[in-house]
Design brief:
By secondary structure, the protein is of the alpha+beta class. It has four helices and seven strands. α3 runs parallel beside α4.
Length: 153
């Protein structure tokens, strides 16, 4: 996002996009110049960044008029990065989880994904998991377990 933030935000504005989920943000903290630019366009950003290494990170960017609140998850996860927000309207509560997974596909990811889905599914009327899972769903084995986990919710 760092070197393309103005183009990205101009696209958000031109297309009247209310919500964007971004993986591999490369953001470093909540007070950097990128988040300031996002605010100048009338949006808020909620993100998790890697403090131990460069790259990665996930963000949810919302128009500032959208009511949302932070969700404190019951677990922490080591097989993926995630940021989660609860969006509230007059008629429903929706959770959006932005997830980014790298590296080999493991059973630990399936276990942690199930923990995440179990946690968020009980707190809202509907939920969305978006992002880059780096899973080839046409494959068998652990990829099928990931698909089965999603299907069970």
């Amino acid at each position: 996002m760092n070197n393309k933030i103005n183009d990205f935000m101009q696209l958000m504005e031109d297309k009247d996009i209310d919500i964007a989920a971004v993986c591999e943000t490369w953001l470093t903290d909540g007070t950097n110049t990128i988040t300031a630019i996002i605010k100048e366009y009338g949006y808020l950003t909620f993100h998790e960044y890697r403090d131990s290494q460069r790259g990665g990170g996930v963000a949810l960017i919302l128009k500032s008029s959208i009511k949302s609140s932070q969700i404190k998850l019951c677990n922490s996860f080591s097989s993926f990065e995630v940021t989660v927000r609860l969006l509230k309207s007059r008629v429903c509560k929706t959770i959006i989880a932005v997830l980014y997974r790298t590296g080999p596909l493991t059973k630990q990811f399936v276990t942690e994904l199930d923990l995440l889905l179990s946690d968020i599914s009980t707190r809202c009327d509907s939920f969305m998991v978006v992002g880059d899972l780096n899973v080839h769903f046409e494959e068998k084995g652990v990829a099928k377990q990931v698909l089965d986990t999603f299907t069970s919710y």
